[in-house]
Every structure is written in C-alpha cells, then in structure tokens.
Amino acid sequence: MGDPNxxxxxxxxxxxxxxxxxxxxxxxxxxxxxxxxxxxxxxxxSAKRYNLFLRRRxxxxxxxxxxxxxxxxDGIRQIDFVLSYVDDIKKEAELKAERRKEFEQNLRKTGxxxxxxxxxxxxxxxxxxxxxxxxxxxxxxxxxxLGIKMPIKESDIPRADxxxxxxxxGPLKLxxxxxxxxxxxxxxxxxxxRQELFLIEDESSFFPSSSRNRIVYYILSRCPFGIEDGKKRxxxxxxxxxxxxxxAFPLHDGQYWKPSEPPNPVNERYTLCQNWARFSYxxxxxxxxxxxxxxxxxxxxxxxxxxxxxxxxxxxxIVGLACFIYGLLSMHDNSSSTEICDPEIGGQIIMCPLCDxxxxxxxxxxxxxxxxxxxxxxxxxxxxxxxxxxxxxxLFLEFWKQRQARLEYEWDLVxxxxxxxxxxxxxxxxxxxxxxxxxxxxxxxxxxLPLCSRIPWYFLSGAxxxxxxxxxxxCMVAVIVYRLSVFATFASFMESEASLKHVRSxxxxxxxxxxTGSCLNFIVIxxxxxxxxxISAWITKMEIPRTHQEYESSLTLKMFLFxxxxxxxxxxxxxxxxxxxxxxxxxxxxxxNVWRSEECDxxxxxxxxxxxxxxxxxxxxxxxxxxxxxxxxxxxxxRRRKARTNSEKLYSRWEQDHDLETFGSxxxxxxxxxxxxxxxxxxxxxASFPLAPLLALLNNIIEIRVDAWKLTTQYRRPVAAxxxxxxxxxxxxxGMAVLSVAxxxxxxxxxxDMIPRLVYYYAYSKNAIQPMKGYVNNSLSxxxxxxxxxxxxxxxxxxxxTCRYRDYRNPPDHEEKYFHNMQYWHVLAAKMTFIIIxxxxxxxxxxxxxxxxxxxxxxxxxxxxxEKLMTVKILxxxxxxxxxxxxxxxxxxxxxxxxxxENKVQLAKSAT
Length: 912
Hints:
Elements: H1 4-26, H2 28-32, H3 45-65, E1 81-86, H4 93-109, E2 113-117, E3 127-133, H5 136-145, E4 149-154, H6 176-179, E5 185-189, H7 203-206, H8 209-220, E6 224-228, E7 231-234, H9 236-241, E8 247-249, H10 268-275, H11 288-295, H12 297-329, H13 335-341, E9 350-351, E10 362-363, H14 368-377, H15 381-410, H16 416-421, H17 427-432, E11 435-438, E12 445-448, H18 451-494, H19 509-542, H20 548-576, E13 583-584, E14 587-588, E15 590-591, E16 595-596, H21 606-643, H22 653-658, H23 667-684, H24 692-714, H25 728-751, H26 754-764, H27 775-778, E17 780-784, E18 802-806, H28 822-852, H29 858-911
Antiparallel strand pairs: 1-3, 1-8, 2-3, 4-5, 6-7, 9-10, 11-12, 13-14, 15-16, 17-18
C-alpha cells in the first residue's frame, strides 16, 4: 500500500464510496455469492473500503474483457430482461422511487434475480439499469402456466423439404444449418412434475431465449408495485407510461456484425443478419425457423405470410406484364387511337368546351397520345386479366390456409388459440375491473366489466371512426373542387388558337389536372393517416378490451376502415362516379351549383384511374420504405451520439440495446396494415393497371429485407409472443377478395371502353372488312352551338355551328333532341349483362377451387395424428414406468418394515 498510485486510487475510491454504497447494498446478495475474498462484513471501515476498491477494479476489468457479455457479473446467470430509469428531479421523484423499490422487491419475491448497474457506470452518467435473470425454478413454473411445449423425443417423421423442382431451386436455398437450426421433436406441454420426461441436457439452454424473455415479460406485466387510490396497481406498462421506468426490453444475444465469443451462446442475431437481412440475398428464401426461435411465433408468421404473398405475386406479375406487353405491341394497330390521331378524322372533329366561358373548343386529335396510352391498359387482355386475378386471389387465400396449417404443425401451434389467446387477460383490463365473475370455461373467478360500462366508449369509438371517414370524404371533395377550379386555369394556358390547328402535347389540361390532383390527394392521405393512428389507439385503449386478441381486433377494424376510405376513396370516385353524371352541353350538372362536374377523356376515365392508382400506390410504397429505413437509422445515430459522452467508460451490451429504437407492441400491426392496403391496390383496381402486381412484387422483395434489416440492426429485440395465424387480417383479405370481383367487373364495364366497342362491333358496324372503322364518330353525339346558354358559351366566338361530346344522344334535328338514343340502352344492357356473367363465372370458379383445395394438406393431417399418437404413447410409458418404480420402492420399504417387525418380535421373545 506504499505505492503512491495505489494510494491515489484508494483516495479516489473513498470519495466515491458514499455514492456506491447504495449500489452494493442492492447487490449484496449477488456479491455474497462470489469468492470468499470479497466478503467484507467483518473488516474495519478502512479495510472495507480498500477491499471495495479492489472488488470494483476486478469487476470493471472483467466487464472490460467482455464488453458484449449478456451475463451478470458472475459470468454465469444470463440476462433475460433489462429495465432502465433515470433520477427524476420533479415532485414525483420520491413516488417513482418508492414504486420502483416496491416493484423490484415483488419481482424478487416471484423468484427473479436482479442486478443493478449504477448510473456512474453508464455511458451517459445518468441512467440506471436493472438486469433481470430468470432462474430454473421460475422458468419451469411459468412454462407450465403458459403451456409452453418442449421436446420429449426426436421426431421420426422426415422433413417435407423436397419439391418437384428442388434441383432447379438450389441457388435460392439457404444452408441446412440456417434453414433448420434444430432437429424436429415430438413435444408436450411442460410440467414440473414430469421433468424427467423432457430432453433436458443443459438447464441454461433448455428454454430458448425467446421463451425466457416471454416468461419474464409475463411476470413483469402482472407484478404489483403498490396500492394507489384504493386500487392495486401492477404491470410494467403502467410504470413505463408514468415514466417510472424509461424502458423495458430483452437483450439481443450479441452484435449483428460479428459472431459471439465464448462464454456467450451462439449469436443468432449475427446469423440472421448474414443470411436474412442482407440486400444481396433478396433472391434467397427466409430462415423462418430461426426467425421464430429468435423473435417468437408472432413475428415469424408475419414474415412467412409476407414471403408467401410475394411468391404468389410472381405469377400475377408475369401475367400482368404479358398483358401490358400485348397492349404495347398492339398500340399502333388500335383502330380507335388511329382514328383519333388521323388529321382527316380526329383532326376534323370539333369537341365542345370542357369548362364554361374560359375553355375553348378543341379538336379530337389533341388527345392522340392520351388515347394511345389508354390502349396500354384498356384492350382485349383487360377482361382476361380481371378474370385471372379473381382466380388468383382465390388460389392465394386457399394455398395460404394450407401453408398456415403446415406452419401450425411445425411450430406446435395446433391447440394454441383456445389454450392461450382466449384465456389470458390484459393487465389493464384486470386493473380497471372492480367486478368479478366465474369464467364459464375455466370455472375460476376473474375480473369482469359490465356491458353498461363499455357502451359509452363504444358509441364514442363509432362516432370517432365515422367522423374521420367523413373527414376523408370531405377532403376528397375538396380535391375535386381544386381540380375543377384549376382546370380552367390550365385550359386558359394550354388552350389557344393553335389547338384548333395542331395536335397538342401529351400534357392536356385533363392529364395535368389529374396529375396535380393525385399528388395533392396523396399528401392529404398521409396527413390524415398520421393523426388518425394516434386517435384510434387511444380510443381502443379506452374501450378496455378483455384480451390482447380483442384489443388488436378492435384496433384493426378501426384502422382498416379508415385506411380503406382514405386510400381508395379517390380511386372509387374516378372509377365509378367521374364522368357518369356530367349531363350534356347546355344542361350540365354542377357541384354545389358552382363548379361543372368533371368529364372523362374521350377515351374514357381509365387513364386517369391508372394515373391515380400509380401515384398513390407507388408513393405509399416508396414513402413507407424510406420511412422504415431512414427514420430508425437517423434516430439511433443521434441517440448514440448524445449518449457517448464518456468514451473511456464501458459501452455495455444493455446500453447498446438501450440506444436502439423501440419496435413497440403495434409495430407488427402497421406492417400487416401496409401489406393489406397494398393487397387492395393489387386486387380491387387491377383491371385498370395490370402492372400493379409487378410493382407490389418489387416493393415486397425490398420490404422483406428492409424489415429484416431494421429488426436485426436498428430495433431493440421485441418481446417474443405466440400467434397461430395472421388473425383478423385473414377475414379482411377474404372480404377484399370478394369485393375485388365486383369492382373489376364494374371497371371493365363502366370505366373502360371495352363494352361500347363490342356493342359497336357486333350490332352497329357497317364495314365487314374493318368492323371497328367509324367507332369514334359513332361514340360522339352532336350538339348545336346555338343551344348553349349564355353563361356557358365560350368567351371567344367561333364560326362552328356544332360541336361533339361523348355520349349516346339524339342529334339536334331529332324530334326528341338530346335524349338518350337506343344505342345507349343497348350499351347499358350489355354492361349489366357482362357484370352478371363475369361475377357468376368468377364466383363459381372461386367456390369450386375452395371446395377442391383442402384447408389442411393430407400429409399434415397424417403428421399431426402421428405426433399425437407418439406423444400419448410416450406419456403412457413414462407414467407406467414411474408407477412401477413407485411400486418397487413401496415393496422394498414394506419388506424392510416386515424384517424390522420380525426382529422386534425376536428381541421381545428373547427378552421374555
């Protein structure tokens, strides 16, 4: 102790002794379990402080050598969960400290082991960390409570990995040790009293880390922290909401850029990053079993669904691309666009103005490029593709049911729903309920909330959703008013005397207005969506749902109804309302008696619907991917930059995870919602845009790797949760699949120009050699310019006597002038007939396919039966052997008892 450097360090440690006293008192139990040289209870104060210093130095060096350690300081007990908090200087500081003290004491009473890291050891110098370890007894107790299934025997059923084209798909496959990190086992629900039955080689690794953090979170969510206002308060979520703790999360098992070193376990995070989160592996299959082992079944099944959906999109994208190529190749041979572009035909047709006063007359050939572009998506292949997508969506949903059934078997989720999801109550529900009622299933008394207490919140919830959907409609009307208002401005700039002599550019007033209106509509969609997300989550919480499943179902319904109206309302307007109630020159329909209703292009509204769909769908996908990738990256960089103020201190594993972004309990919900909204774009309006499946396919290929990258590198590890299916989203997909048949039939009938062309071809064409010749002139009616009212006639006078407009009406010299002619009724009858026939054909094929394809594959049924049989046999043999052993022991004890009694008798006789 004569060394001046040592003395200086001792003095420094003495100055810190008062600050560290609390730290070592809290961890006294952990420290007492160390080497005997660390025992300090019998030493004088000076020697005690010196040993405190030595201990501190030894511990610091040990931590420094294992910067990425996921263990307590003893290097044995694994960290299963981490809580963090900072000292509060406000009025509630004492209350929060008391809550934490009570909470941590109750955690210890449940059997959990805690170790606290003082803020002096933290990188930022102000954050405390509470490390939690679940010992074996706690794990086995709650594994039985949660019904976790564990292996009892290695399965003798071979894996079903071989496919008819497995040799060709070799480059797409992952290494076997990554795809199947563990062997397959027969499993049974874990029971403490049957521990000998299970394949327990090492207690520290028997339960996977996902099961361990799920068990700890289950305890945290139900652990009480005091009584306030006469009510028992409990649950980590309440403590997080009140900022008593700043965060609660399970640890990642290592760094994502390097494998772990002993004694840490195998770094599954690194394996996932290398084989799943790399963009260069976009063509590879996903390691679903590894995802499930690391993140839990709920996240795992989302990636299985997203991967399956992407695979099925490949077939739809190929057919859609083929239809687009057909339209591209036949574009110049299209008789309608040829007539429109012909200076002798379309160039001689004078069209009526598209707005009052400000708009001038214009020649039909000014829409030449628009008519050619329209043919790309409005041709003979449109009907075929609409019918194909109706069949495709049926196959997708039926095959997904099979994939889901196979997944339930492989991941031991066959009996999960009734055992777990329906019976486990939300901690918030338990805390809010003052009534008790016997559960009809469990026959146990549990919290109960009367319906009368929920009705006001249900009314508020319904009113809120209705109000916001009405707001969406109002915003859509505002965008329509914008387009009507600025159309005249665009027309005044773009219409001129030259428009009556030359063909204009591709940017006509209609297309320009449509483009700007679609962009404005997309911005409004994003703004409304931002606010509604927060309101819907608050309303759902106030409804006090009983279980987590009820909470997610309620939130899903609210969010989907709003997003459905938000994203699709403008597309429905263009597809089914725009141009349908315009009226005719001299008797136009006006919106609010001010703005004249919008008209479609002479080639129909399909071009505008395609434009609207492309901008919203592409914009949403690009914005979503940028937000998902850039937002957490920038946020984490800024958080680490603020935290790393003391670079000489240890930047521990828990601190590194603490500085990552939180995935949140609703993170997966928004991923599903994004995918389902995209599914709507692909199915509901696909007849107008056959490239929609291709855009969705490209987006999903990127989406999978973006989601994998952000989960693996940018987010804290989510708490593992179980799920046996995609839940209520599956019902939503079925509803959208049925609706898509009707919408595509109506798009082909009323939005495209297919049916009028067919009617002309078969009923009104007079040219046997070129049946479609004269169709454009036939589809335009004649209006006498003298019949224009004064308030609608163009400001500049022209020497034309008539102009043309798109409709089937009688000419001015007819006795019933401007009334619909017979061809109009023929076309309308043909449209309704087509809708009925298409819907019946597609629905018949859908029901036939659904009947032919079983929900559960035959081999899966056989595997489930085999596993149940083997499980029953193994349990029977175990109980039988245990009974025999007990009988043998009892027989041995009885024989010993007889010998003792006989000896006593002999002794008594000899004594007599």
